[in-house]
Amino acid sequence: MANVVLVSDMLRGFLEEGYPLYCGESARRIIPNIQRLLEREVAKGSTVFFLCDHHAPDDPEFSMFPPHAIEGTAEAEVIPELAKYKGEIIPKKTYSSFFGTPLEEKLKKLKPDKVIVCGVCTHICVLYAVADARIRGYEVEVPVDGVASFDEKSHRFALDYIENTLGARLTNLVTSRAKPAKFEPQEEVLSGETADIYFARTVEILRKEGINPVATMEFFTSRAGVLCGMGEVKALLSRVLPKGKCEVWALAEGDTMKEREVVLRITAPYQSYGLYETAIDGILAHCSGWATAARECVEAAQGIPVVSFGARHVYPTVAGIMDYAAIVGGCVGCSSIAGAKLAGVEPSGTIPHALILVIGDTVEATRAFDKHIPAGVPRVALVDTFKDEVEESVRVAQAMGEKLTSVRLDTPPERGRVTPGLVKEVRAKLDMAGFKKVKIFASGGINLERIGQFIEAGAPVDAFGVGSYISGAKPIDFTADLHEIEGKPIAKRGRIPGITPNPRLKRIM
Q1: Which of 28, 102, 124, 259 is 20 to 30 A from 92, comparing alpha carbons?
Q2: Which whole number is the average pLDDT over 476-505?
């Protein structure tokens, strides 16, 4: 069996300027992501349905909204960017794509592994499509970077409701493009040096007593978030568990997790893994904290790419795994070479102030970058070192011409940081000078609150660089408990003996 993709209302009337219910730039930003989703799913043999508003001229819905998507008009057509993909159009006259349509019968015949819902608007037709599918028992996924709305608060409310009330799984299309990471456990971890001493003593006592029962241990999270670190945990367990004598069940890397949800279950001789409880808790705690903070930024950015710039804020040996976790959380890239290698992406970087200060001029530094760095690396000029950001942006654009991809605004706090007003001014002056294709990258103290301010103000930011909000994220505590010994339920006081049911877990070893 394959999947079904429901593409909700990606119509010209909602995605093109000039129509009364145009959803804005946040909606247009999800178009490339949906294109990648359709390419991936069609290649796998999945079925695509375009769920399309199809109203009569006197539709009662027009008492609430302006007339839109009237049958036979251009605004009721699927946007050209998606119309080229093979899929069946399902006309609908209400928010529900199941009510009064053949969709339910078609799904019954297809029996999909899961239903993937994308499109607009998150809090209206997307929400109804998810609810209708979940009510009928389908496993549903919603890519957070494949849905959008004209209202940010409603968009965020709908995502929370979709996940925590309807039970659908939130995913990220950017993350799904990353290659599986290859982890190699560190010697200090394998040797037990990073373990709490009482675990080392416990294993020593049991070994000397000749006691090594098959025991089941479960790891659960203290709060909701994005699970990360499971790849590294699997690499560790693959080195220490006896082959053929173990079972490991887990949520997948990047899965959303609920408060106190069991995310990992290990059944194996206790001595083989008991020493590593500390390491597993720590890996999951920090990686999930970073990934969750990244996901918060990605969701707040409403389709604007977010790049992790946090490597400078952490101890060097953990910079790579922090950046990897940020990409699992939805960042499109990261600044550290180590993190990019783990995630299977190219490292993202521009020009530092140091290069400009040493050379003595922004334009000359950008030209030197262009001269010596491979052509495949985007030319992104940092424009706040010596002159006014607006003036410097135009100067660099004039000097670099078509080669210039973006300008980066990184105004320090001493000068008021990057503001929505500054971004708008730079955009206006670049456009007036004929450089409409040059993008604007904002960095410097960017956090969840400031991203929201840029979005609310309609500032034309094309990408955000986020540092300490991700790298300094609070770890998500994980706890491990034994629940069975030799198949017999057991637990300490305050815990329930026996296996904790969680149908979301998949066997990974």
Answers
A1: 28
A2: 95
